[in-house]
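Quick question about two entries, pasted in order.
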Amino acid sequence: MKKYLLTVCFLALTASYASSAERPNILFIFTDDHALKSLSAYGGPLAKIAPTPHLDRIAKEGILFEHCLVSNSICAPSRAVVLTGKYSHLNGQLTNKGSFDGAQQTAPKLLRKAGYQTAIVGKWHLKSTPTGFDHFEVLKGQGQYYNPMLITNGRNVNHTGYTTDIITDQALKWLKQREKKKPFFLMTQHKAPHGRWEPALRHLRTFEDIKVPEPSTLFDYYSGRSAASANHKMGIAEDMGPNRLMFRYSSKFTPEQFKIFDGHFRSRNEAYKKLNLQGRDRTRWNYQRYIKNYLRCVKAVDENVGRMLKFLDESGLAKNTVVIYSSDQGFWLGEHGWFDKRWMYEESLHTPLLIRWPGVIKPGSINDALVSNLDFAQTFLDIARTESPNDMQGRSLKPLLNGKTPSDWRKTHYYHYYEAGGHGVPIHYGVTDGRFKLIRFSDENLNTWEFFDLKTDPMEMKSRYSDSKYNQRVAGLKKELTRLRRQYKVIE
């Protein structure tokens, strides 16, 4: 009997290793504040001006999701949702404040337990020490664009160069040195294009002679909505400040870097001061300075995605590696006169999602279902043929990758923002079905609702909450909002 049991255990172990060898690798590339409109695969007025060919390649060879919505549009909470597959109120990371509870269940831990070699390189932004990884190299806090310090398996290691490049360098280094017998799960997470937007030296003059088209809502006076949006503190004209506009720099440069960087901006800054611009002219100047630096940071991301894809091709790993590209949330590129995120409005709510899986995903696929960063953890596990725990709240995207959206797929999405005061954005929550959106501002000083018809008003310029024409729609979404809050255990 004992001999029999030993034989069974051996065979099971052997089968486990064989299965592991067959399972696909997962490369998750994650950026910070990447607006859909700055990724050319999504089209729009910036696509020809600032193309992203390497990111577009993932879409061309895989699938593009048109409606990937975040559950809480702010950095740390979004990352916690990706790791846990749970809404912020359950994983404990409601805001950027506080430290992520690394003792809780996460997708990397489950993948590691299932035989995957796990690693994270780049931006962590969760204050606690990463858990569930065989290897980690992470920025302290936000990090900086030049000469970053990476906390490497508990040890501080200084690097010289541009952070987007260095994160890719270190990710490739790990890929080359990893344990080859195991499938891998690698999270390559960039600081870019988060503010403050300091471009790579090689991109300082990129877009210099181009006038980037202004968004139609650059001059928005917020008259069609509640007082919530009018109280913002994220205006391109009034709130950007000298650091965001490159009148001052955030990074610590080497003397050689500073000579080139400052040599570029100083003369242009002095010329601007002499103009003494006011009103709309100042807004327009600020917008051009901001959007060009933002797009320059995106360009470096795209180049480094290309480096990762090239390595997969040349190493023979591409055929059995799922490449997933996304960002922690969307971002405003001047729409409504804003920069930043946080709101449940469209530009902030939507985040890019591109996935390539050779032999599984039909190249050039486009999916319009409502998906979410809440789904990422279960998708990782499903790709790895590892069972998801019952307490995760998302749903695997794997059926959608196969070209089949289940008939019972979600028809509505729940959103909840908790960090009161940041850039003047109040706590709010809401529901959308893709066309209609209902938002509740629960702050006692506001105590108000907004409702939008995205078909007739895609830029969300006028709330229709008090329009009797929509009474039935509003009532229906209120009912759905209550149902979702119970489903996700926001309320009992």
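Here is the second entry:
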Amino acid sequence: MKRIDQYLEEMLEKGASDIHLSTNHQPCFRVDGEMQFQRGTEKFTEDELRELLYEFTPERNVKELEESWDTDFAYELPGAARFRVNIFLDHEGIGCVMRQIPSRVPTFEELNIPEGVRSFCFLNKGLVIVTGPTGSGKSTTLAAMVDLINRTRRQHLITVEDPVEFKHRSLGCLVNQREVHVHTKSFSTALRAALREDPDIVLVGEMRDLETMEIAIETAETGHLVFGTLHTNTASTTVDRIIDKFPADRQNQIRSMLADSLKGVIAQTLCKRIGGGRIASCEILVVTPAVSANIREGKTHQIPSIMQTGRKVGMCTFADDLLSLVQRGVISPEEAYANAIDKPFLQKKFKEENIELDLSLTALDDIDMQMDESENASKSEKARKKLHINPRDVTALRELILILATDENPDERNGHESLEYAQKLLDLTGQNDALTLVLISASYGELAHFGEATEWAKKALKVAKANKQKELTTRITRYINLYKRGIPLRGEAV
């Protein structure tokens, strides 16, 4: 018995999802999403922890750690559970995180996966992406989908993972699971090789680089069903993230390829259950002809509106799913609000359904106040504080969008986020507010989508002229000239 096993047994007893071992710290467990230090236990020294970890780390991974300063692999506690392991170096020494991999693949019902996801498992070809932040349950959702495919179809399924988490034995399907650095050198290498291995379905554990993304899209285009994961927060931003990975001169081509090959996006996050445990909240995008057209034309900011009216074809927004979880008594209104992407919209839904929301329990105000008081708080962080106080504050929205789209500091800018806020502003002000249209154009400019930036700036110009806003008309004309030259706005006062 290795010494790590006693920590893992304690982890299982506590029902923890992860264990954290760090130099100069006590062991720490993540239970229901919260970190719990093991008070009363000794802190690890650098030498003690390194000795503990090297006892069960494969020689190959020890070498990789020493060369690259981090490494991933899987470890099994015999007869109990498997764990995904990451060992890394930080400013204090060596550290390790181990995440439990359930021994049994959970069902759709246990995971709260909407029925709309089931239809993705029966596609013959195309690309399906599962997305969400780290630790949101993406691998588990994919495992449930693979299990359903394995039980209901008669095909060849290849997975490429780092590391292999859930083990699938061949049932109806022939299942080949390959682990990066053990059975193949990289995701892209394995994915390219898969095309010569007579697959029907390919699962890519993580589309982490441009080459892997490109091959995945090409594989889907050539008549295969491809599943992959990304680290994005919403369905619509997933599309933008993929496109922005490619050079500007190829983005129109990739938009066209995605419009044809992408079949669906499942975005998810984990929420705290009432009574303990966690449950996934999901957003589902089904790529209909309307969605496909928006992808092709670079109008992804319109996708959320399509999703709100697409329930009949299996679409679902985070707001709808969070509301459903609250109505079923699974999560609290405050937990739903804390996990919502569009908080004002969810608040509106709560009011319509007569659901009480106690914002004091979300702890957002306290967190944001601390943020504001920090000398290191960024301009965008301070602007977000104002929006938390009043999410419908048009002035605060304009301020935040301007920072995200045009600030001279690149660390402040985020084109995708800027565009999301600009859409919210448009919902509040309508199409007859020239400033709103200018801010949408600036957001597209930050994303290097200069055609769309010019189009929105021209709309703004028309409104400004109609309203006899002479100074603004002059500025907008200058902005259009910049966009035509491929130059985004920087440091503008709009």
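Reply: DSSP finds 22 helices and 13 strands in the chain. The longest strand covers residues 262-272. Hope that helps.
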